[in-house]
Amino acid sequence: MPELELGIVQTHFAELIWQHEPISSGELVKICEKELNWKKPTTYTVLRKLCGKGLFQNVNGIVTSLISRDDFYSARSEQFVEETFNGSLPAFIAAFTSHRSISKEEAEKIQKMIDVSLKEST
Q1: 80: CB partners within 8 A, 6+ apart
Q2: Closest C-alpha among 73, 39, 44 to residue 58
Q3: What pLDDT digit, counting tens, does each position of 86-98 carry?
Q4: What is the pTM of this model?
Q5: Sheet (strand 56-59) strand order
Q6: Dist. CA 55–CA 62, nearest whole Å
Q7: Residue 3: pLDDT band by 50, 70, 90 thresholds?
Q8: DSSP of the chain, one letter per residue?
């Protein structure tokens, strides 16, 4: 399992890779120079760190993800609920809705997700 803890800068960098992959490391340097005002060594340092965390790989100068953006955020969400609410989705939803009401449309979407999940688990 990849390491899911990323800072704001690493997350922004990861987003750039997911948006452009597969991408040559040279092109990634150019994008980071434009978007993040980074020099080449900074880009390669951060890329090496994220490769070490198991999120990306750089093979023959081509950078690709080892985990998709959706899978990454899904795993981070699961980890957050596990660590913060002892894995209890109802406790998370109670905390989330204690300061923010949900619309009827949101409730219907959630109900559909629950219905699909129940069908898949039986």
Answers
A1: none
A2: 44
A3: 999 999 999 988 9
A4: 0.81
A5: 23-24, 62-65, 56-59
A6: 14
A7: confident
A8: -------HHHHHHHHHHHHH-SEEHHHHHHHHHHHH---HHHHHHHHHHHHHTTSEEEETTEEEESS-HHHHHHHHHHHHHHHHHTT-HHHHHHHHHTSS---HHHHHHHHHHHHHHHHHH-
